[in-house]
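Project outcomes to date are best conveyed with an example. Our students and postdoctoral researchers have been running inverse folding experiments weekly, and each run begins with a structure described purely in tokens. The record below, which covers 336 residues, was selected by the lab manager from last quarter's runs and is presented without edits.
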């Protein structure tokens, strides 16, 4: 059972059951509040009809989250009963149908937000997109994972994973919608390969705005265990929004003088001391040099992976075996 509905009102019953059916959510309708106590604590969402709210209060059910009083034009009594039940809100139907539809869209989803890991290149061609793809591939065998392509000038993470031909919603489609985005709708709507979903771009003209980025990430963390974001080095306000929402930020840099100089400038703009770390690729300088120049700790050293280019060209993605790349992403996700 997902939704428990207490009502004898035909109008409330018709509205709520139709919305639940549209959201693919199971509904248990009960016309006698005394028979609902056994299900009260098990339902993901409890909707108490305003017509039965007084009877429900008299039963003194245990306080819990996810309780709402619903009904057509609820009066002052409905609000008093909502307070007595510990309800989160009083919902007027059908006026608030869109709000209830949004709430139903996330029924049965995870209670706590998933982890967000951002990956950004300290300099051009550092391999940040490759690392982001590898992180997502590795974790997808363990739980629902979303790889977000937030770099308008990047190659497209779907191409690195061989998913460019898969159907599904892209950034452009999200930008054309408004309102709250459901976690299930996003998870099931993007191009997927098993537990791995990819949000990327359709055409060559790419632009990401802050409201769309915010709506996407809110839904992404509700519907996935891990969200990996391939960040742009210079992405404007939307990129700043995404960086600020990352739990962990990995900055990929070559251990060269030009690479570290560019990375140091990027790090100064990020302002993420304490939650960011360096992933260093081989070069003429040491890990200690990289840490000293950038001010960030080195969390991993990424060795060369034989056959990487061929694997990507074949549409298999960068992570195909147990080489140094696999060990690096495993350790990064275990430690962060």
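After processing, the design step wrote out the following sequence:
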């Amino acid at each position: 059972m997902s939704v428990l509905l207490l009502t004898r009102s035909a109008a409330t019953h018709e509205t709520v059951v139709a919305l639940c059916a549209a959201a693919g959510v199971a509904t248990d309708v009960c016309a006698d509040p005394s028979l609902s106590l056994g299900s009260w604590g098990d339902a993901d969402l409890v909707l108490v009809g305003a017509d039965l709210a007084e009877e429900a209060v008299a039963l003194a059910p245990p306080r819990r989250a996810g309780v709402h009083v619903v009904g057509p034009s609820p009066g002052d009594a409905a609000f008093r009963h909502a307070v007595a039940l510990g309800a989160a809100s009083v919902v007027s139907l059908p006026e608030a149908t869109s709000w209830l539809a949004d709430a139903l869209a996330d029924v049965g989803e995870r209670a706590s937000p998933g982890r967000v890991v951002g990956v950004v290149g300290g300099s051009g061609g550092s391999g940040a997109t490759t690392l982001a793809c590898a992180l997502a591939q590795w974790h997808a065998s363990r739980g629902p994972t979303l790889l977000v392509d937030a770099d308008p000038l990047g190659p497209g993470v779907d191409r690195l994973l061989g998913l460019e031909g898969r159907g599904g919603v892209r950034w452009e489609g999200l930008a054309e919608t408004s309102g709250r985005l459901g976690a299930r709708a996003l998870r099931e709507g993007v191009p997927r390969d098993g537990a791995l979903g990819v949000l990327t771009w359709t055409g060559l003209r790419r632009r990401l705005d802050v409201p769309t980025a915010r709506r996407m990430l809110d839904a992404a963390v509700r519907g996935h265990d891990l969200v990996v974001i391939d960040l742009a080095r210079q992405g404007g306000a939307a990129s700043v929004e995404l960086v600020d929402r990352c739990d962990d930020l990995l900055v990929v840099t070559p251990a060269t003088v030009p690479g570290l100089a560019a990375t140091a400038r990027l790090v100064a703009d990020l302002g993420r001391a304490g939650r960011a770390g360096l992933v260093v690729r081989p070069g003429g300088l040491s890990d200690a040099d990289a840490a000293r120049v950038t001010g960030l700790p080195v969390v991993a050293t990424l060795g060369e992976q034989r056959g990487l280019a061929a694997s990507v060209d074949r549409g298999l993605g960068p992570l195909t075996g147990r080489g140094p790349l696999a060990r690096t992403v495993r350790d990064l996700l275990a430690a962060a």
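The chain has a mean pLDDT of 90. The first helix runs from residue 10 to 23. The training component of this project remains on track.
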